[in-house]
Design brief:
Elements lengths: L1 E7 L3 E10 L4 H13 L4 E12 L1 H16 L3 E5 L3 H9 L8 E2 L2 H4 L4
Parallel strand pairs: 2-3, 3-4, 4-5
Antiparallel strand pairs: 1-2
Helix pairs in contact: 1-2
């Protein structure tokens, strides 16, 4: 899994994830999210457009990030989840908790 971070105005961090988001890699995503929150970027947009596989551990990392971000006064919003990731979100009904958007600017309009 590859992860990159780009900062946007309004304390928004765009976290782009590529590859497999699973038991092996989910810890790394948790660390990135926690790091962004610690750096005062609690509004996090996670780009899942290049995620080829998402399992329950990856979903757990997203939910843990959401909880941490909200405790810090922010939020986690998803950007362009790939087909398989979107299917997992829908099957688990997590698409009602983790909102998906077409772009970072749609996710955080004031950013």
């Amino acid at each position: 899994m590859d992860v990159s971070v780009v900062h946007h105005p309004g304390a928004v961090a765009e976290v782009a994830v590529a590859g497999r988001l699973n038991m092996v890699t989910s810890g790394a995503l948790r660390e990135v999210i926690q790091g962004q929150i610690a750096e005062n970027h609690p509004r996090i947009a996670i780009d899942l457009s290049r995620v080829v596989f998402l399992d329950s551990s990856g979903l757990g990392a997203l939910i843990a990030g959401l909880k941490s971000a909200r405790q810090a006064g922010g939020d986690v919003r998803l950007v362009r989840p790939a087909e398989q990731a979107q299917l997992v979100l829908e099957l688990t009904n997590m698409n009602t908790v983790l909102q998906s958007f077409d772009s970072v600017s749609d996710a955080y309009p004031a950013a």
